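Job type: complex structure
Entries:
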Amino acid sequence: MVTRRTILQWGAATGAGLLVPLAYRQGRVLASGLSPYTKSGLFFGYQPFSQPLFIPEVLTPLTGRSRLDPVPGAYPRPSGISGRPRTPTGNFDEVSHGIAPEFGHGPQEWNRFKSGFSPGDTHEQEYELVTEETTHRFVPGGPDVPVFTYRDASKAPGSGSTPGPTIVAEYLAPVVLRNKNALTAGRSGVNSTHHDVETSIHLHGAHAPSHSDGFPDFYVLAGEARDYFYPNIAPKLTDPDTLVAPVRGGEFDSTWIPSTLWYHDHAMDITGFNVTRGLAGFYLVFDDRERELAARGVTPEIGGRDRFDQALDVGLAIQDQLFNPDGTLLYDFLDHNGRLGNVFTVNGVVQPKHRVERRKYRFRILNASNARSYELRLSTRQKMCIIGTDSWLLPRAIEVESFQVGHGQRHDVIIDFRDAPDEVYLENILVQTDGRGAKEVDPSQERDMLLRFEVSGANSSETRCVDGTVIRGFKGIDPDGQFSFIRKEEIVGTRDFEFNRSLGAWTINNRFYNPRRSDATPVLGRGAERWILENNSGGWWHPIHTHLEGFQIKSVNGQAPRRERRFNSDLVMLEGGFVAEVYAKFRTFTGPFVFHCHAIEHEDMRMMGVIDPTPGPGGSTDAIFTHAPMDGETALDPNLSGVVPDCADLEREQRILFNKVGDTERAADRGVGIPDCKFDMSERGNQGSNP
Amino acid sequence: MSRASAIASAWLPVALFCLAAAVSSAFPIGGETRGQRGEMPRQSDRFSNVTLYTQHGKAVHFYDDLVKGKTVIINLMYSGCGEICPANSAELASLNQLLGQRMGRDVTMLSLSIDPLHDTPQRLKQYWEAFGSKPGWLFLTGSTRDIERLRRELGAYDLDPVIDADPSQHAGYITVGNDNTNRWLVLPLQMDTSQLLVTILRTSRNG
């Protein structure tokens, strides 16, 4: 039990502790005398690199009788697949948040997604996750710490892990993920926050419908369920291409075949808390090219969901954590600079070890931290072969000695241990002391050591991954090349976004996020846009992330970005004063989607904007900015976007009730979002007693 | 026929089938009970229980009298502040109006002066009256030391000392907290009013 006194004492003793990370390093004695560190400076006496790396299970798809019931899109009450909100019931079986309307194009349409479609194979792959609290040990012998987890619904309550189970999907094979949010104030399971926690799952890097994208207020309310529909497609090359209109022909844009995604919480106002408390996991997509790469020996033995080998293809989610004196997780809701941790974890455990043989491994390195960036290298200075950045494979591999991974970014790397000594550390050489951003790369600094590889066995003689090894290949250059740059001639317009600090908060074009206002309304599937992203907020770093589609970074401060960042990204790191120029296309799905700063405390303070791609007016070829004014005032169009029609409808259907405290906000949280009705509660209902 | 209803009717037979087939399954509950994992540290444990004075001249303790067990909207202001504070006070007045009967009952507004030398209770009363003498809205002053301490505890500081020294830089946002449920967040006051309102209502919910 943490008393008020201890917190005060601790807070006073470590007032600067929130700002200056007491980086928990190998062999270093932290003479702070603070719990949870012992006098030797060890975290609950933990000897670094003495516990094994945790590797999350692969989530098992539901088959036969265990398939989702009710089936996706068919629920006990009439709103069915429309995704429209309903009165909350607290009954998971009613899946009251529904499923994306795009799912309703029906099984006959599935073959537009699936290659090698076989008759009768009309179902999507189904999964079910429960969001709940469980306890977790960050170190052996340490306390059982309450965390939030995504748990395989077929497993026992409390058996969830952080990171959550890895979802392995196949390109063009659709997935429906049912999510039940059990983080209630006491109606299900244990929840030590003792209040309802809203959640929203964002599949980071996915090309998925708005309803399934984790738009911040498209919540999964506590005690409710939502079906997320992930088609696992790349956008189509044909324009305009929307699932709202009859499906058009044309090929998928192979430049954007997804690979390394991650799913994490994105609930409005509370994302930072939810993510640091454990709500994140990997989502990997395999395709024929992946199998070819394995056959060619470029990557280790990976080959689709049946042969995915976690011994050789390992996700590493890096997160810096902060703890209370009793070892529970510390989250300061009012530290909006950005939560910087002082204990490094990989896959939810403090500084683990991982046994490897003298051969090649693939590591999907994810920075799952809220506010910290890393510059990662191996202690041997051995080069790593980058085969993918963020959600996509590169056209050709790039070898580097170190790379920067901003919060939310991913690097897909091949590390070949054939010539390695017995111990190799993964270490961070980027110095960061507060939430503003990193200071400098210091190769000589006392290093933040994240993970120890313990190497054994005889040297393998596998093919090496080297600089220039063909991965997806350049279209028209490499045999069966799949990657193309977005060409300058495709650009139909430019948008400018300025990221500023103003009056203690962060703005985008001097505005704050409003989920019902569109800040960019591209014409769906038409050409490409050039976005200028300018960080004028002083020394603050802002990693800028777009949903629905990634982008290609053309320049940073007028220069070409680092080599590995010149292809596809879904997140560009804007260091203080930086200007980036990126090209993007917006295809397939109508909005709303968000783009935002991935420093999660900034995001929670509404440093977000809305992208609402819509079909061109009457299908004409009007200039894009006639259709998409830059006034920042354009409301989302309920006839096109995934929001409910209007406030009058809501009142007629009695979805907004004022007779009880709690009803208004619950109604406003429903399903796919509700437009802002200018309700004045001094004049409406609101006469009921306070329960 | 709208797009949504067209889709809905195409699926109606399936929906009806499932209505018949639907079997309610109880949600499995773990063996633990409430309290076994200890309590989360409370955000308000960080707050000093300093003595402040309201615009009505009443002495109050910040935590015990104003925050404990309540949902609060806290902002920093000072009456001599040029443009930012009046605009934000006007926004608070309109939120107060929208919250109607909940003001003072479910939600209280605490406007903390960061210029306590000049902002006497009398002056703050005039300021409160200037913005409509709204219910459930307290303007607070106190010793410079106590106010500065509270400002830090509320996270209302800037890492850049030059910006931190400019009091107007701390007047742009509200801290919304529910001490019963230990839910706290910070929102810019220049956000859309109904967005602010919806979040305040969600935060004020008990449980």
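Summary: Residues 4-13 of chain A form the longest helix (10 residues). The domain at 488-627 of chain A is CATH 2.60.40.420 (Immunoglobulin-like).
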